[in-house]
Amino acid sequence: MSASPVTPPAEVEVSAAPPNPQTWVSWFSLATTFREERFFLLLAVFIGFFSGLAVVCFRLAIEWSKIAVLGPAPQAHDWRLLAAPSLIGLLVSVLVIHLFPRARGSGVNQTKAALYIYNGFIPFRTAIGKFLTSALSIGAGHSLGPEDPSLQIGASLASALGRRMDLSREKLRLLAPVGAAAGLAAAFNAPISAVLFVIEEVIGRWSAGVLGSVVLSAISSVVVMRWFLGAEPLFRIPSVAFLRPTELIAYIVLGLIGGFAAVIFAKAIGYFRPRLRALPRWTQYLQPALAGLIIGLIGFFGAPQVMGAGYEYMDQAMHDQFTWQMLGILAGLKIVSTTLSFVSGTPGGMFAPTLFIGAMLGGAVGGVERLFYPHLTASTATYALVGMGVLFAAFLRAPMTSVFMVLEVSGNYSIIVPVIVANTFAYVLSRSLQPTPIFDILTRQDGLELPSLEEQRERTVLLVEDAMKPPVTPALNAEDSVDQAMHRVQDSLDDVFLVRMSPSGWSAISREALKKLVGEGKGELTLGSTLPIRRLPHLHPDLPLEVALRYVNQSAVLPVVHRADSHNLVGVISRDNVLHKYQVAGSEEAG
Amino acid sequence: MNLERLTALTKLPSVVIASLLLLAVVAFAAVNRLVNRFSEQELALARHLHERGQQEQRLGHPARALEDFRAALSYDRGNFQYRLSLARALRDSGRTDESETYLNSLWEEQPQDGAVNLALARLYAREKSIDNAIRYYHNAIYGVWTSDAESRRLSAHLELTQFLLQQNATQQAEAELITLALHLPRDPSVLLQVAGDFMRTRDYEQALFHYQETLHLAHDDEAALSGAGQAAFQLGRYRLAYDELSAAVRHNPEDADAKQALQLDEFVLRSDPFERGISGAERDRRVRTAFEAAGKRLDSCTPPEGSAATSPAPLESLRAQWRAMKARLGRLRGRNAESPEAIMDLVFQIEQQATQSGQICSAASDIDRALVLLAQSRGDEGMRDQNQGDAHAGAAQ
Q1: DSSP A306
Q2: Which residues of chain A lie closer than 8 angstroms to B35, CB-CB?
Q3: Residues A278-284: what's their mean pLDDT?
Q4: CATH for B236
Q5: Which residues of A touch B106 (CB under 8 A)?
Q6: Do B242 and B290 belong together in one domain?
Q7: The CA-based dihedral angle spanning residues B214, B217, B219, B224, taken in that order and rounded to the nearest 10 degrees
Q8: Which of A30, A49, A56 sits opposite B14 (nearest CB)?
Q9: What is the mean pLDDT of residues A114-143?
Q10: Is residue B242 domain-shared with residue B296, that is, in the same domain?
Q11: Contacts of B44 by beta carbon, 8 Å cutoff, 6+ apart
């Protein structure tokens, strides 16, 4: 019997329908046909649908808010640029402090908290609060994006829906990430990136059940969003191309500069956020207003592009509508303004600002590089796109999502090589200069102990081969007689011996049992005939050690066999071996 | 049914799914209504901003127009017309790279669109990229226009001709004009413009024809009269030129060009000894006047004193011929010793040679210019006669 395919727990009925004498109920009831897994998949579709609708409304609310407070065509030197973000900041702070305290902070972390701490529970009030306050603040020009709130609105909706159903605790927990994927997919109009992000940053593990529901919810939300708002991607990407491999050097430079920028951005947030939160309570009312005023000043004096999510300006940057100097200035100002907005506790996300900074920085670096090396063929759009991926990888620390996000928003696979190269350099540099990812910094500042998925990914997985010992005593064969077996083990120091059964499988017999059989005059019998039919589980060297832990109580030793030949014993493993290995590894990590 | 059972019933998957479906339908309808209303408002806002942008552009505020067009596009992202307006505004603001990017993306969407092609043609014309400009002008001429297609095609064609004339590509311009002339509307202003363009390409026959066509539609059009007169003058049809120019000056006595041309034309007519219907005495008088004028012109052709330059040999030879003829005419006063043709041939040779030797000859007087024009006119006629003769001979063979 192989231990690797661990038998799943028996599937649980969704609900036990009460005995009902009425035939129409029993006819109408499909309870027996719906197992929880299938029901969960169907529920994921509904979650995606409702999240899509919510995100559509959220985007309309941001637009409406923007038109209402900044006017239809805000331009520099307009007094509304000063007044709107500061006054709305004041209003938002009152709403957050008195009505929606959970609307402040990162939606990603709150979704993770729901998954790991609160059994999938996110109050619906949070969704309402996030919707209102984020729409107001982003619309009024605070330098934040709609993706993180969309993610949280989706998660919150999913949680609210799930609470009405009779779901197992495991499924209830997973509802929040499923909703989060739907919200993010609709906000980005990029289902693959959303799925990857949620798997990479929120759930942290791949499994068919989770993946299926996350994908279904993401797809259904994107379908709904496209139904209402059109299938256009976030950006109108001009033709981008990657022609010469030598140009990769230019992208490596971009990756390194982007990595530095991401570190500055993360460190600024990590430094100022706890300090501002530690200030007296009355200052919490003024912080978003003050941040809004400073951002308004930036806009008023000539850079209104940094206000709001800024997608239209990313689009313009890709179409060569800014000089490289202007692009560099905008990247710098966006770091400042987003830091101000976020650390002041204004609700909103950092996805769009991250992309904005990346696009501007990419365009600027590309512009400078082309100044010195005019033969470089890549356009500003190419550099801007790669820059987006670079910041995404280095700041949000989601390297896989960053690659797919660029591919999805560009619809162009020819730039995959530059994107991967630049993102890798940015990611590695950011990790070495800022070991803790931004989401983990925020989590710790909030006093939560959520698993760091980046750390989990990096953690060494202990395998069976790390704990097993080489077989000292040769394995016995089922065809051997008890006398022969006794003779073979008489010099061994072990007390339990593995028996190779025929035609397959393994069993074990102790020295005491052998002696007893000989004493009973059964020395002529074959070992196979004296052993129970039930076989021992066998392991393979590459299995995670935790798999061995499940079976080590079944026998004093377990066989570790070759995958290509299950009769080939490559090692033995006991409970002591496993525990000793964990102890050693634990003390190494602690040290 | 008690509350407990009702609660249990609501937990049935089928009931849950049915409820969710119902909720989904209701929510979808509500959001649909909301989105539609919001979209309508956004589209109206976009229209307003676009119109404001166009107004700003007309008032000469391209920067404000740009902002308005951009804002309009933010509310109606894919709108072709707004993007085109933005691209045009960018082009007119000198931001040609941005404009080119926009126009190229529009062109990729609708390569047959006349307006986009025309905008690209103007962009390249502005950048003096002649081949690209011609390519997109042609695309515009043969492209698809949503409204008023014929006049827009005509306008693009005329614009292309103007562009070619500005680039001194007169042969290409003439070729375009000839194509254009095949399908011209009976519109005096268009005919007048085409005639003017033909004048610039020096195709005076076509110019005269189109001026005359214009005059058929607008009898008193002063510009057409003047143009027809000048075209006829250039063709050596001085009597016709006189009629047209006289009419033009009558209609607009301030027309200095017409007046000047008319003055010269009168000189030519008055100096022409071969004009039909004049008396023999008048012909002799004109021949003598021309002969004397040619002599004076010859006399003026002397290198400045102290200059090492000498009179060209042909001029010296003509001087000798003139003197010899003068002597013969003096001896045989009153008798037809020399035919008017022979005298005028010498006169024409002298005037043409003197014109070619402008560095040492004095400036031509009105009669000198008239005689040069008559010489050219005679030469052209001779050429035409010879061509016709050759043609007849060819036909006979």
Answers
A1: G
A2: 56, 60, 228-229
A3: 90
A4: 1.25.40.10
A5: none
A6: no
A7: -10
A8: A30
A9: 89
A10: no
A11: none
Domains in chain A, CATH or no CATH each: 32-229 (1.10.3080.10), 245-450 (1.10.3080.10), 464-590 (3.10.580.10)
Determine contact: A256 vs chain B, CB below 8 A: no
CB A153 within 8 A of CB A51: yes
Rg over CA atoms, chain B:
37
> Residue type for B211, please?
Y
- Looking at residue A350, what DSSP letter applies? S
Pair of tokens at residue B173: 């311009």
The number of folded domains in chain B is 2
Closest CA in chain A for residue B5:
A18
Write out the H or E segment, with its range, that includes residue A476.
strand A476-477
Cα Rg of chain A, angstroms:
30
- The CA distance from B369 to B352, in Å, is 10
Burial class from Cβ neighbours inside 10 Å (0-12, 13-18, 19+) for residue B206 reads buried
Q: Of B217, B249, B271, which one is at a domain's C-terminal end?
A: B271
CB-side neighbour CA atoms (13 Å) of A185: 35
Q: Are residues B257 and B199 in the same domain?
A: yes
pLDDT tens across A503-558, in order? 888 998 888 888 898 888 888 888 888 887 778 888 999 999 988 888 888 888 89
d(CA A295, CA A341): 8
**Res A27: pLDDT:** 43
- A339 CB burial (10 A radius; 0-12, 13-18, 19+): buried
Instruction: Report d(CA B148, CA B84) in Å as an integer.
Output: 18
Tokens in use for A249?
A: 């050097």
Inside any domain, residue B98: no
B193 and B241, same domain (yes or no): yes
Are residues B285 and B197 part of one domain?
A: no
- When CB atoms are compared, the residue of A29, A60, A63 closest to B14 is A29
Same-domain status, B218 and B241: yes
- pTM, rounded to two decimals: 0.70
pLDDT digits (tens, 9 = 90+) for B217-234: 988 888 999 999 989 988
Q: 3-class SS at A481? A: strand
Same domain, B238 and B284: no
Query: In this predicted model, what pLDDT tens digit does every residue of A306-362 receive, in sequence order?
Result: 999 988 889 888 877 788 899 999 999 999 999 999 999 999 999 999 999 999 999
Q: Which residues in chain B are closer than 8 Å to A31, comparing Cβ atoms?
A: 12-14
Distance, CA of B63 to chain centre:
32
Model pLDDT for residues A392-446, shown as the tens digit of each residue:
999 999 888 899 988 888 777 778 889 999 999 999 999 999 988 898 898 888 8
The position carrying tokens 């739907």 is A182
Q: Which amino acid is at B394?
A: G
Do residues B120 and B129 touch, judged by C-beta distance below 8 A?
A: no
Q: Which residues contact A33 (CB under 8 A, 6 or more apart)?
A: none
- Report how far apart, in Å, the C-alpha atoms of B12 and of each of A12, A41, A313, B284 are: 14, 16, 50, 126
* Tokens matching residue A96: 């957050």
Task: Give the range of the structural domain holding residue B369, as residue numbers without chain letter.
Answer: 280-301+312-388
Sign of the alpha-carbon torsion through A357, A360, A365, A368: negative
Do A228 and B31 count as a contact with CB atoms less than 8 A apart? Answer: yes
Q: What is the predicted ipTM?
A: 0.75
- Rounded to whole angstroms, how far apart are CA atoms B264 and A421? 80
Residue B53 lies in a domain: no
**Domain end marker among B250, B271, B292:** B271
Q: Which residues contact B231 (CB under 8 A, 6 or more apart)?
A: B195, B199, B204, B205, B207, B208, B211
- The answer to whether residue B337 scores a pLDDT higher than 70 is no
The answer to whether position B130 is within a domain reads no
Are the beta carbons of B8 and A17 separated by less than 8 Å? yes
- Considering the domain boundaries, does residue B2 fall inside one? no
